Amino acid sequence: MFMNHLLQFLFRSILNADFACAAILISYGAVLGKTSPVQLLFMAIIETVMFVINAFICVELLGIADIGGSIVIHIFGAYFGLAFSRTVCRKTEHNDHIHEASSPISDLFSMIGTLFLWVYWPSFNAALGSDSGIGRAVINTYLGLVAATVAAFITSSWASGKNQWSMVHIQNATLAGGVAVGAVADQMIMPWGALFLGSLAGLVSTIGYIYLQPLLNQKISLHDTCGVHNLHGMPGIISALASIGTALAASETLYGQDLYVHYPLLSPPANSTAYQRLYEMDSQIAPGTGRTPRQQALCQFLGMLVTLSLSIISGALTGLGLSCSTVFEPLIRHQLFNDDTYWELPDEDETVIMTESKTSEFVEQPKIFSMKSLPDAS
Fold first, then answer.
1. Do 92 and 330 touch, CB atoms closer than 8 A?
2. What pLDDT score was predicted for residue 121?
3. 376 occurs within a structural domain
């Protein structure tokens, strides 16, 4: 019995650590190429503390339902990183930088990463699900991802004016459906609900990359390297708003006894007659506070507001603190988006020579299966 509880504790601890890492990596996407390793190290340490505080407030105190972490992971990570980016780079001109560009090779590797994320996103959303909710979380996430993929391809092609797709849009907006479904993945949102959320997220994410991201950079100098606002921020808010609706609609008629598994605080208080009757039907249900669906919806809304406020304030203050001293090695303009500042890279001439050498070697290989090498049938 003790070992079972210990293994469950370790499993949840590892998952929570994984979720904290996910939030930090999301924040890194907003500041990639504009910060030094020292700044990133201290940013990760501070953000981990703030992430745990925010998760405690939202999950333990407010009792929000957020199985896929769209609120406590995606919204927090995105807006912490955006606020950090706005303050840490305020003294450095980073717009129209010559090195801020992708290459065919980097685009290819990013697309491979997108494929891995797309395939494993359902398991991420369902990791903490109950026995009755895991299957629903996987199916809803897949439907959301499929809808987001279709919406991203359509919107990207339409916006280009040339019926062409953008690698940036497809690499990111196709995943937005997983974020939009996250907070309600194990809820009774029905297949059409998952498809609607995924389509909306794919559309909003792609439009964000095309119009909103350049506008924010131009108007308020909010530079977002990887576009985390479009992939994690706005889809996370869509998911948070959807969780308000599902909380309002929650009832025993819809969920049965599973209602108190998805929303534990809706369970009656321990000493009440209602809980005794409920306990006789299912002894696994824990006592709650007797919260109503309307109160749960309000807590979902408060959880979103708390996460937005705490992430923006803490991210901005962290950026201010890590940019005010040379101890943290802030970058200057010629070091931005440049790997050779901290990494040993081959010279461009050497790279060209190696490439030409490999090409010539490939060309000189004998054509083993050439038609000329076949014997004459005559």
1. yes
2. 95
3. no
Q: Which pTM does this prediction carry?
A: 0.86
Residue 130 domain flag: yes
Classify each residue of 238-271 as buried b or exposed e, where b means 16 or more C-beta atoms within 10 Å of its C-beta.
bbbbbbbebbeebeeeebeebbbbbbbbbbbeee
User: What whole-number distance in Å separates Cα of residue 95 and Cα of residue 220?
Assistant: 12
**Where in the sequence is the domain holding 23, given as residue range(s)?**
12-366
Residue 209: inside a domain: yes
Instruction: Kindly state the helix (H) or strand (E) to which residue 91 belongs, with its residue range.
Output: none
What is the domain count for the chain? 1
pLDDT digits (tens, 9 = 90+) for 7-36: 666 778 888 999 999 999 999 999 988 888
Cβ neighbour number for residue 234 with a 10 Å cutoff: 24
CA distance 224 to 28: 10
Q: Residue 5 falls within a domain, yes or no?
A: no
Average pLDDT over residues 358-362: 48
- CB burial readout 16-28, b (16+ within 10 A) else e: eeebbebbbebbb
